[in-house]
Structures are given as structure tokens and as C-alpha cells.
Amino acid sequence: MPYNEYLLVFGRSFLFALATLLPFLNPPAVAPIFWTLTEGASAQTRASLSKRVAINVMLMMTIAMVAGNLLLSFFGISLAIVRVGGGILVIHSAWRLVNSPDADTSRVARMAESFTPEMARSRAFYPLTFPISCGPGTIAAAITVGASLRDHNPLLSAVRLAGSLPGLVVVSLALYACLRFAAQILHRLGENGTAVFMRLSAFILLCLGVQIFWDGSRELLLELMRQGMQPIAAPPA
């Protein structure tokens, strides 16, 4: 294959990974949820958490893309099961956010006193990275991207993988920017606008969790129906 053909494959893989994963991650919608879950934290703590969450998300997407199918096959877990389990997690997290009380000055002060660096580190992965930022939908999309990169030509597969990795970096940088500057983004909305935006984002996250759960459940039900419709072999005479 000519050199320029490999460059074309590299560019297509980059755009494919970017266009597939960015809508699932949806960094602008994560910003108000991140702000709510880190209520009372200092600006420095939030900046550190933004960086840590973005790195965690990039690592999770890379692992899911490179080795997701192998890990699922090794443990005998189907992608439908991942959607069902992950959907339940997203629904649980979103439901808590939808029903969380609005912020007030005294509560923020109390939270600021108790939001220690240890608490920030403990929340960096769960729930801020998974399932809030990088949920089962993103993981399933990354696994799908990884499966589409494979080819019978090992060099072509390597070029596709090399092209998709910068796409993951761009997606993670977009997430970092939205989390890092969430205060500036939400400041323009005002206190009431931020509360409305947070509720709306939490509700969208809840709907997304239901959709992920339903997609996995439907796939399992269809597989169960296909197995039930198969003719039963007659016993040997």
C-alpha cells in the first residue's frame, strides 16, 4: 500500500474515533454534574480533579478500545451484560443527582470544611470518572471502535490504532477543558441557571442510563427468544 494511503487511513481512524466517542462523552453536559459533586472544593482541588478525571477517562477508553473485546471474551461477559449493569449504575447516579437538594451558602461552607484531599482522591474514579464522565455507553462505543480497527493486515491495524489514539487524546482534552473551566461556564448562567442546567443534565443522564439499560435488556431478550424458537432435537431412537 502506498505511503499516502496509510496517511489517509490514519486520518480516517482519527476522525472516526473522535466522532464516535465525543458525543457519548458529551463534556459540556458533564460540567454541571462535576461541579455539583465537588461542591465545597477549592479551585485548586477542582483543577487537580479535572486533570485526574481526564487522564482516567483516556486510560479507560484506551483499554476498552485496545483490549475490551478480549477482556469480555476472557470473562465470558457479553456487551449486552455490560450495558445492563452499566445502565443500572448510571440510573442510580443520575437519580441521586436529580433529587439532590439545591446549594445554599451554609451548606457550601460545611462542605468546604469536609472536602479533604483524601475525599477528592476517593471520588476521582467513582463516581466522577465512572460512570459520570465515562459511562457504559462510552465504554461500549470504545469497544466498538476497537473492533472496527482490526484488519487481516497487521500493519494496517497498527496504523488504524495509531490514528485513533490522538482522537482519544482530543476527547480527553475537551473533557478536561469543560471540567477545568466549569466555574466560568456556569458563572454566566447564574445560580438559578446553574441549578436548572444541572437538573436538566442529570435528567438527560438518567434517560441515557435507561436507554443503555434497555438496549442491553432488549438484546438479551431477543437472544432468549431466538434460543426458545430453535427446534428441539429429537432423542436418538
Instruction: Supply Rg.
Output: 21 Å
Strand content: under 5%
Q: Spell the H/E element sequence.
A: HHHHHHHHHHH
Oligomer: single chain
Structural class by secondary-structure content: mainly alpha
> What is the CATH-assigned architecture?
Up-down Bundle
- What is the overall shape? globular
Alpha carbon gap, first and last residue: 59 Å
What is the averaged pLDDT score? 80
**Tally of separate helices:** 11
CATH class: Mainly Alpha
Count of folded domains: 1
- Biggest β-sheet, characterized? none
Unreliably modeled segments = 104-113
Strand element count:
0
CATH topology: Growth Hormone, Chain: A
Helix-residue proportion: over 70%
3D structure, described in words:
This protein is mostly helical and 237 residues long. The protein has a single domain, classed as Up-down Bundle (Growth Hormone, Chain: A), CATH 1.20.1250. It contains 11 helices and no strands. Helix 1 (3-25) runs parallel beside helix 9 (154-180), helix 2 (27-37) crosses helix 9 (154-180) and helix 2 packs across helix 11 (190-229). It is globular.
Tag the structure with descriptive keywords.
237 residues, mainly alpha, Growth Hormone, Chain: A, 11 helices, 84% helix, globular
Task: Note the topology.
Elements: H1 3-25, H2 27-37, H3 43-75, H4 79-98, H5 105-114, H6 117-125, H7 128-133, H8 136-148, H9 154-180, H10 182-187, H11 190-229
Helix pairs in contact: 1-8, 1-9, 2-9, 2-11, 3-6, 3-8, 3-9, 4-11
